[in-house]
Amino acid sequence: QVQLVESGGGLVQPGGSLRLSCAASGSIFSIYTMGWYRQAPGKQRELVATMPSGGSPNYADSVKGRFTISRDNAKNAVYLQMNSLKPEDTAVYYCYAEGLGIIGTRFQAWGQGTQVTVSS
After folding, report:
1. Residues 22, 37: contact at Cβ < 8 Å?
2. Which of 5, 36, 110, 114 is the right S-S partner for 9, CB 3.0 to 4.6 Å?
3. CA 47/CA 56 separation, integer angstroms
4. Is a pLDDT exceeding 90 seen at residue 23?
5. Which neighbouring-strand residues pair with 99?
6. 19 and 28 Cβ atoms separated by less than 8 Å
7. What is the pLDDT at residue 93?
8. pLDDT (tens digit, 9 = 90+) per residue, 89-114?
């Protein structure tokens, strides 16, 4: 099994910044893609940013130019630097990973979610 543990959420004023972190552990052989999704109250979960191993990041239009995703493959970790935060960024943010387990089976895993609230 693969576990994802997120940290870094919280309350921030509009225009502020937060950095989310996520570390994967468990029976991992390799991770293809890691990323972040979010879900606001009453809305569907949506992609924020993803980053394939050795590839270019992909961002939702709503966060381009404000959010930056990065990975540390040696640590099986992914980060999301969020700048110029807006109230509409308020949501529960979920870490996501997909890859190959040590027994040769593909996996998809989600973190437990971390709350980000942007409010004055």
Report:
1. no
2. 114
3. 15
4. yes
5. 31, 107
6. no
7. 98
8. 999 999 999 999 998 899 999 999 99
Number of Cβ atoms within 10 Å of the Cβ of 42: 5
Task: Map residue 88 onto helix, strand or coil.
Answer: helix
pLDDT on residue 66: 98
Counting every residue written for the chain, the total comes to 120
CA angle 81, 8, 55 (to 5 degrees): 40
CA distance 45 to 85: 19
Distance CA 96, CA 24 (A): 9
Q: Which amino acid is at 30?
A: S
Alpha helices, H only, the chain:
none
